[in-house]
Design brief:
single chain; 128 residues; mainly beta; Lipocalin; eight-stranded antiparallel beta barrel; 15% helix; globular
């Protein structure tokens, strides 16, 4: 019983920490379900940025080092990264972006122009 209680307390404290840690987004993320792209998210001054660090079959449409995410800022109220921009490496188009980490640890990035409802979501899982 005591072990279960300790485990429960540990899990709850981790979840609370994860939701309030703005740097939790930092790291390498593999796009799913295709698993054809890895982006590395890092902090630059007071914003979070992401660049392509790997592309399946060295796709020229997804150049290594391409700055794909920029301007994301964490908001504690919604526990999301907001006011960012995401660029399409193929077309060069820029979209507004928000990001959040789901309960299962998946990074969800929403790209949209104008209205979020009509945006597209991309999903990433953390890689080591």
């Amino acid at each position: 019983m005591r072990k279960i209680l300790l485990l429960l307390i540990s899990l709850l404290s981790y979840k609370c920490y994860a939701q309030t840690n703005p740097d939790l987004i930092i790291g390498k993320w593999l796009k799913t379900p295709k698993e054809d792209l890895i982006i590395e998210v890092y902090k630059s001054k007071d914003e979070y940025r992401g660049k392509i660090t790997w592309a399946k079959d060295n796709e020229t449409s997804k150049p290594i080092g391409f700055q794909i995410l920029e301007g994301l800022k964490y908001t504690g109220e919604s526990k999301m990264w907001v006011n960012g921009k995401i660029r399409n490496p193929k077309s060069g188009s820029t979209y507004s972006a928000t990001a959040k980490i789901q309960a299962d640890g998946t990074l969800e990035v929403l790209a949209y122009k104008g209205i979020k409802f009509f945006g597209r979501k991309k999903y990433f899982k953390r890689v080591k």
